Automatic annotation (TrEMBL):
UniProt cross-references to Gene3D superfamilies, sorted A to Z: Phosphatidylinositol 3-kinase Catalytic Subunit, Chain A, domain 1
Pfam families in the cross-refs: PH_UBFD1_C (PF25343), ubiquitin (PF00240)
Disordered: annotated span: 1-52
SUPFAM superfamilies referenced in this protein's UniProt entry, alphabetically: Ubiquitin-like
CDD domains: Ubl_UBFD1
Domain Ubiquitin-like: 58-127
Ranges of biased composition (kind: Polar residues): 1-16
Protein name, per record: Ubiquitin-like domain-containing protein
Family matches, as PROSITE patterns: UBIQUITIN_2
Length: 283
């Protein structure tokens, strides 16, 4: 009997020990962190974050044609035309306000490139002028600036100011177009010609309204000016020849950047202002 009790005790002890081990193991399992669950939750979130907030977008290579040269530009197809203009300003030094981008017509700033049909390899024409080119057209000297400032202080009529008088004193050009005072007419289909600049050289104005440009031509060159690059247009009739005006195109931020044109037929002056500045100028 004694041996049976001992065996029973020994068996009970083994069962007890096994139970304690199982309970201990179960307790340990209950207290163990659920790392797998955390990982399973974190990975999809990070993946979504990468998909939805991806910083590097797919880009396409397009070609910008400017001044008879081609430039390869990498840009997202989801970028707007305004964004492209900012990029081109840094690349080509053409101010955004002076840029016209042409692809199947004039591209609007709020358009995305993809919505405009721009794809890889698309050629876009840039029409515009750098500030250096624009100011070079006006070719204003320091002496001219000083004379204009002096005249402005004295409030002299333009035709009496020295800078203008030296051109007007030569008389009307032989090929000047007929002028009519106190009459307003629309721009003629042909360019306005027979006018002079401050150096006495011949000037011709061609209005390319479909491209929103004014072509200013001299014997030496033709400058294609975006209408938006012309900040202001002023004019004044010529004393003794009121059928003609002196016209100033302000090509830069200050009055010193005005490009002066003489013997402009009076009947076209308002139409020139309308074409360049828009009719809103009167309101």
């Amino acid at each position: 009997m004694m041996e049976m009790n001992c065996a029973s005790s020994e068996n009970d002890s083994k069962v007890l020990n096994l139970t304690e081990k199982n309970e201990t193991k179960k307790s340990d399992d209950d207290n163990e962190p659920s790392e797998c669950k955390i990982q399973k939750t974190d990975i999809p979130e990070n993946k979504d974050s990468l998909e939805n907030g991806q910083e590097v977008e797919e880009t396409i290579e397009i070609k910008i044609i400017f001044s008879k040269k081609k430039y390869d530009v990498q840009i997202s197809p989801n970028a707007t035309v305004a964004t492209l203009k900012k990029h081109l300003q840094g690349l080509l030094s053409v101010p955004e306000s002076m840029q016209k981008l042409m692809f199947k017509g004039l591209l609007q700033d709020d358009q995305t490139l993809s919505s405009a049909g721009v794809v890889k390899g698309t050629k876009i024409m840039l029409v515009g002028s750098t500030l250096i080119d624009v100011l070079a057209v006006s070719s204003v000297t320091k002496q001219d600036v000083a004379e204009m400032e002096k005249a402005s202080t004295l409030k002299e009529p333009l035709c009496q100011q020295k800078i203008h008088k030296k051109v007007l004193d030569k008389g009307t050009p032989e090929d000047v177009m007929p002028g009519i005072k106190n009459v307003k007419e629309a721009l003629p289909p042909a360019p306005l010609s027979g006018m002079l600049n401050k150096n006495g050289g011949k000037v011709r104005l061609t209005f390319k309204l479909e491209a929103d440009q004014l072509w200013l031509s001299t014997k030496e060159r033709t400058e294609k000016l975006p209408m938006s690059s012309i900040k202001n247009v002023i004019s004044e009739s010529i004393e003794g020849h009121e059928e003609y005006h002196i016209l100033g195109l302000q090509l830069g931020p200050t009055e010193a950047s005005r490009y002066w044109i003489y013997w402009v037929p009076a009947q076209y002056v308002d139409a020139i202002k309308d074409a360049v500045l828009g009719k809103w100028q009167y309101f």
